[in-house]
């Protein structure tokens, strides 16, 4: 991870020396977020408690294979070489969430710690997180009549923070449950591989990118070895400022 973080600024500074043109652009769009790996599941259950009038709980496995939609923003500096080779440095901010379907609820009444009733349940929870990303991409620009197509690939480093879990539904027929955990997980760094493509018509572009996380979000747990890895698909518009 440390070598990846060092590589990003070095490439961003050294490689543009061979460039012939510099472009600056901004992008905005939808971010689709989910988890992959052996322990990512689309359904889970909620551990729910009513602590003297303050109902709350948490999802047993919030790292869901079901995608959720969020917001993705970014700014990019890109250098175009004589033979349409590309070197790009992209900084981004993302507000993303994954969704988990709830099928069961374990309920502990107030004042009782040794009893937990199991009930069929419905509803869903969402794991929301903010991502600050830095991407260095190498690639090529292809021309197709009035269009220019930029294709890039390279390493991405992300700082993931601001985790929050929220959800609601019903259990035992018509009883309501709700969870709201403002600090569901610890902030962390993630190393990723990213593929990125933008189709340009003059200054306006359509951008799509996919990031494949390499670091396990549940590494270091005692007595277990679950594996979940972040996956992000971005779709949106880009605009050349220069």
From TrEMBL:
This is Outer membrane protein beta-barrel domain-containing protein. Residues 1-19 form the signal peptide. Keywords: Signal.
């Amino acid at each position: 991870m440390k070598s990846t973080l060092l590589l990003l600024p070095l490439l961003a500074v050294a490689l543009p020396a061979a460039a012939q043109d510099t472009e600056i652009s901004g992008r905005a769009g939808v971010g689709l977020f989910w988890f992959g790996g052996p322990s990512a599941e689309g359904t889970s259950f909620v551990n729910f408690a009513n602590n003297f009038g303050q109902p709350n709980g948490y999802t047993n496995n919030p790292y869901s294979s079901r995608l959720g939609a969020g917001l993705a923003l970014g700014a990019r500096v890109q250098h175009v070489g004589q033979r349409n080779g590309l070197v790009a440095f992209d900084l981004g901010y993302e507000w993303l969430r994954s969704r988990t379907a709830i099928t069961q609820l374990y309920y502990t009444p107030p004042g009782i710690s040794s009893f937990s009733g199991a009930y069929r349940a419905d509803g869903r929870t969402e794991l929301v997180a903010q991502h600050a990303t830095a991407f260095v991409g190498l690639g090529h620009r292809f021309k197709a009549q009035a269009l220019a197509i930029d294709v890039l690939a390279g390493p991405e480093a992300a700082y993931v923070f601001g985790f929050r879990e929220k959800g609601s539904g019903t259990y035992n027929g018509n009883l309501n449950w709700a969870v709201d955990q403002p600090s569901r997980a610890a902030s962390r760094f993630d190393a990723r591989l990213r593929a990125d493509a933008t189709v340009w018509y003059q200054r306006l572009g359509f951008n799509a990118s996919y990031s494949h996380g390499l670091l396990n979000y549940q590494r270091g747990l005692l007595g277990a070895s679950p594996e979940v890895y972040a996956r992000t698909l971005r779709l949106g518009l880009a605009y050349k400022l220069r």
